[in-house]
Design brief:
heterodimer, A: mainly alpha, Cytochrome C Oxidase, Chain A, two-stranded antiparallel sheet, two-stranded antiparallel ribbon, 4 strands, globular, B: alpha+beta, Immunoglobulin-like, five-stranded mixed sheet, 12 strands
């Protein structure tokens, strides 16, 4: 154990170290790596979609494959790219920001990661076993119930596995933030990224169970012959839509709130100015989260819920514009009067403001229910949510990568490549998605395999596809940048930007195994900034150097996950062949035995002796 | 020089105009040129919200640009530490209250319009049509008129027509952008909406809810004709002579083949042959009603209406609409047989009122 042994040892030991790690930093990196892989996969699917739509009545891919492509693009990007990438950042950064040595439940953290990864693998296995899910990422019944083959089964089991992992991580983050803040780190001194992690985790806690329930009902319908969603047998498919969106709308905020947190860190750092209206920002975050649960039916204005329901949900949805507007203006006034340094992290952050504002504007437009009768399920909606998710979340992820890369890996990403990637992606993004608002109103519904000739949709689609190529170029440059930086990047000190304000910049880059040699004493908001302004070079310690208690690594989370993975495959195939029940029992047995071992075998972790702690520089 | 500038200006204006018109899409499909009540209501709200939002965007961008120009770090200022401002109550109140007012300005007309479009108090006195969504075609049955048709929905201009919609399989969504917003067509409950077209025309209809491989090919038309023409059409459809023999020999042979190949198991050629009068049920016909097939605006909803396309469809529907329910439901046809059947179907023209009557 300990990092010194890992550094010296060979490939096998390193691999074992990563497979068994419970270190929040390593798990964070695992999340980021896996999320990046799925992001590239989802991006590839997006490019295939755009190539299919480059010209009218194109036959680049078949109709069935196209539906698989859009389903997998959406599912992969939301569940296996955006969410885990954000969870990776939260995992890595949040404990550092509150001055903790790890998360509250390191074992659970590891289990959460492996469940997510194997959920993603499960979903993608479907490509090789007779066809991916093809009912859209929203998987509406009864289309999903009637979908032939096992594609939708893979969707159900893949999301169930990864959803369990996400729920665990959410609980873990909540407990960590409540219990493990450094001395003096009161709630109202927490950095905004920690705040948004906290609120996001609360959203996860309440939103994911709705998805879990929906997925179970879907699983019973597809694999065990129940009829929850079958109208012919007295079921009701609209219930799926409710369950999905009671989860699905908060999910949008699960993605965007951490993004808000990222920008609330980067803008003050590079404007050298504290966040304007900190208290308002915190309360706006809570308000957005609260309202986020009240608006799910705005995805269902055309379902036929009636004028009363539509009106209530329309007004509730518009109300979210208010706290979101507060945030935008607070960011602007954080910059106002500052000393703004523009680099790639800042470019992504600055580009976010107008891009996301457009996404928010179209959001208010969509909230107007009667107008939505036109927008709904057209390219207008596609344009809107890509402005929010790419212009908000993806921009935040790329900004965060540039901003925290030196902290995580000790090297700066190459600035020139960073700017090249930014400009091509930024231009490509607006080319791709702005025109889509008009395509929608011109009569192009979403999820269309082909659009017909002579419908006035050719030029818009061509421009949109052109933009997608620009975005692809930007992503490739970014990937090259990551590889280049890993090999030859410039080394970064602890306070990599020189103007860091929060605790993560008070540690080494990358931080030592146990984060802080001594717990820092937090004396206010932006603790590191306070110390620097008073001429102190480092944080004032809150405790003497002493031995440090750390958790042991464990292979159990991985084995447990593999057990549930095998059981999931068994569930999928037992419907056609009862021999597969063996896989169900075997997989569940593996999982349960691992749980039993974990429960019965005491693991008190280990202590790093005082002498070793003293040897480390911090 | 002046003349050249003038010409450039004119050219520029025309280019802009062309771009703008092209940017609106094509007539009778785009939602941006409303030609019906629902579309007009929606457009009013689209314009209102767009204008308010553009106003907000301008304010945000003005502050944004000024900030970036004024406060960008300049050479020699690297060590300057700006004043650490905590916040400003007055500003916070301003940017909370103004958005609330803007939201109210949008909310009130939205709610009014929502209730307006859901109003079915007068439905009994007006035309009511049962709409059935199927993978991948639409069926229309006129309540109380004993007539039914598929793919082309005839309505009179200037009148509300109530649609009572139900799906026979998965969820579809009925959308005719130029005259009305959309509504889902569910399998478990009847959804009611009304449409009203202001002027005559053939309006494009689209399915707007993912319903399978051929979701993008599930087009239909709404054919708005004058009230007189509509009455004539209803009359013609009610009086189809089912005993009438096709005039030419090829068509007669086609009719025999139509019967011999069990086409009639799914396709009625009589507009009144309905067992589903009195509200939408899930026992609708298995295939489109062909009683006025000769007058259809398109073959299969998407292809140009001619014999060649119809023959292609009859020979291999799967290549035109992947996943359709007609494929493999009938004995394989050879070219001659398909041509005969096509000849028969294309002469099923019971009415003088056709898409051309709507000025198309």
């Amino acid at each position: 154990m300990g990092m010194t042994s890992a550094q010296k040892s060979g490939f096998g030991a390193t691999l074992w170290d990563w497979l068994t790690t419970v270190d929040h930093k390593k798990i964070g990196i695992l999340y980021l790596a896996a999320g990046a892989f799925f992001f590239l996969l989802g991006g590839l699917e997006a490019v295939i979609i755009r190539i299919q739509l480059i010209s009218p009545e194109n036959d680049f891919i078949s109709a069935g494959l196209y539906n698989e492509m859009i389903t997998m693009h959406g599912t992969t990007m939301i569940f296996f790219a955006a969410t885990p990438l954000l969870f990776g950042l939260m995992n890595y950064i949040m404990p550092l920001q509150i001055g903790a040595r790890d998360v509250a439940f390191p074992f659970l953290n590891s289990l959460g990661f492996w469940l997510f990864l194997f959920g993603g693998i499960m979903l993608n296995i479907s490509w090789f076993t007779g066809g991916a899910p093809d009912a859209g990422w929203t998987n509406y019944a009864p289309l999903s119930i009637q979908s032939p083959g096992h594609g939708v089964d893979y969707y159900v089991m893949g999301l169930q596995l990864s959803g369990a992992g996400t729920l665990m991580s959410g609980i873990n983050f909540i407990v960590t933030i409540v219990l493990m803040r450094a001395p003096g780190m009161t709630y109202m001194r927490m950095p905004l990224f920690t705040w948004t992690t906290f609120v996001t985790s609360i959203l996860v806690l309440f939103a994911f169970p709705a998805l879990t329930v929906g997925l179970f009902l879907m699983m019973f319908d597809r694999m065990f012959g129940s009829a929850f969603f079958d109208a012919a047998l007295g079921g009701n498919a609209v219930i799926w839509q409710h369950l999905f969106w009671i989860f699905g709308h908060p999910e949008v905020y699960i993605l965007i709130l951490p993004a808000f947190g990222v920008f609330s860190e980067i803008l003050p750092t590079f404007a050298k100015k504290r966040l304007f209206g900190y208290t308002a920002m915190v309360f706006a975050t809570f308000l957005i989260a609260f309202l986020g649960f009240m608006v799910w039916a705005h995805h269902m204005f055309t379902v036929g819920l009636g004028a009363v329901a539509n009106s209530i949900f329309a007004v509730a949805t518009m109300a979210i514009a208010v706290p979101t507007g507060i945030k935008i203006f607070n960011w602007l006034f954080t910059l106002w009067g500052g000393s703004i340094k523009i680099n790639s992290a800042m470019l992504w952050s600055l580009a976010f403001i107008p891009s996301f504002t457009i996404g928010g504007m179209t959001g208010v437009m969509l909230a107007s229910s009667v107008a939505d009768y036109q927008y709904h399920d057209t390219y207008f909606v596609v344009g809107h949510f890509h402005y929010v998710i790419v212009g908000g979340v993806v921009f935040a992820l790329l900004a965060a990568m540039h901003y925290w890369w030196p902290k995580m890996f000790g090297r700066y990403l190459h600035e020139g490549m960073g700017q090249l990637a930014f400009w091509t992606f930024f231009i490509g993004f607006h080319l791709t998605f702005f025109i889509q608002h008009f395509l929608g109103l011109m009569g192009m519904p979403r999820r269309y395999w082909v659009f017909l000739e002579n419908q006035g949709l050719d030029t818009g689609n061509w421009i949109s596809t052109l933009g997608a190529f620009f975005m692809t170029f930007g992503v490739i440059v970014f990937v090259i940048n990551m590889i280049y930086t890993t090999i030859k990047g410039k080394k970064a000190p602890g306070d990599a930007w020189g103007t860091g304000r929060t605790l993560e910049w008070a540690t080494a880059s990358p931080p030592i195994h146990f984060n802080f040699k001594q717990m820092p004493l937090v004396r206010g908001l932006d603790p590191l900034w306070i110390e620097k302004m008073e001429g102190n070079e480092k944080m004032t310690p809150a405790e003497p150097v002493d031995e440090i208690h750390m958790p042991n690594g464990s292979i159990l989370p991985l084995i447990m996950t593999i057990g549930f993975f095998i059981a999931s495959l068994g569930f999928i195939y037992q419907a056609g062949n009862s021999y597969w029940l063996i896989a169900v029992y075997l997989g569940m047995a593996i999982g349960l035995i691992c749980m039993l071992i974990r429960s019965l075998k005491d693991d008190h972790g280990y202590h790093i002796p005082k002498e070793e702690v003293e040897r480390e520089d911090d | 020089m002046r003349g050249w500038m003038g010409k450039t200006k004119v050219f520029f204006v025309f280019a802009l105009l062309a771009l703008f018109l092209a940017g609106c899409g094509i007539e009778n499909l785009t939602a941006l040129e409303p030609k019906g009540y629902g579309a007009e209501k929606a457009m009013d709200l689209i314009i209102l919200t767009t204008l308010i939002m553009i106003g907000v965007f301008i304010v945000v961008m003005a502050i944004y640009v000024i900030t970036l120009v004024r406060f960008r770090r300049k050479k020699g200022q690297e060590d300057h530490v700006p004043k650490q401002v905590e916040g400003n109550h007055k500003l916070e109140v301003i940017w909370t209250v103004i958005p609330i007012i803007l939201v109210l300005v949008i909310a009130v007309p939205t709610v009014l319009a929502t209730f307006d479009l859901a109003d079915d108090s007068r439905a009994d006195e007006l035309i009511n049509v049962n709409v059935k969504g199927n993978q991948y075609w639409w069926h229309f049955e006129y309540q109380g008129e004993e007539i039914q048709t598929s793919q082309d929905l005839y309505i009179p201009t200037g009148e509300r027509v109530y649609l009572h919609m139900l799906s026979s399989d998965v969820i579809h969504s009925f959308w005719v952008p130029s005259i009305s917003g959309k509504m889902d067509v569910n399998a478990e409950n009847v959804n009611t909406m009304y449409i009203e077209a202001y002027e005559e025309g053939v309006y494009w209809g689209k399915c707007a809810e993912l319903c399978g491989p051929s979701h993008s090919l599930m087009d239909f038309k709404v054919i708005a004709v004058s009230p007189d023409e509509y009455d004539a059409w209803v009359n013609d459809m009610q009086n189809i002579d089912t005993e009438a023999e096709p005039e030419n020999a090829v068509a007669q042979e086609g009719q025999e083949l139509f019967e011999a190949n069990n086409c009639m198991n799914c396709h009625a050629t009589d507009a009144a042959a309905s067992g589903i009068e009195g509200g939408p049920q899930n026992n609708g016909p298995f295939g489109p009603n062909l009683s006025n097939f000769g007058d259809r605006s398109n073959v299969a909803g998407i292809l140009e209406h001619n014999k060649e396309n119809l023959v292609d469809w009859l020979m291999d529907p799967e290549s035109i609409k992947p996943g359709n329910k007609m494929t493999d439901q009938y004995p394989e046809l050879n070219q001659d047989e398909a041509e005969s059947i096509a000849e028969y179907l294309l002469q099923l023209q019971p009415s003088e009122i056709t898409p051309e009557s709507a000025g198309d």
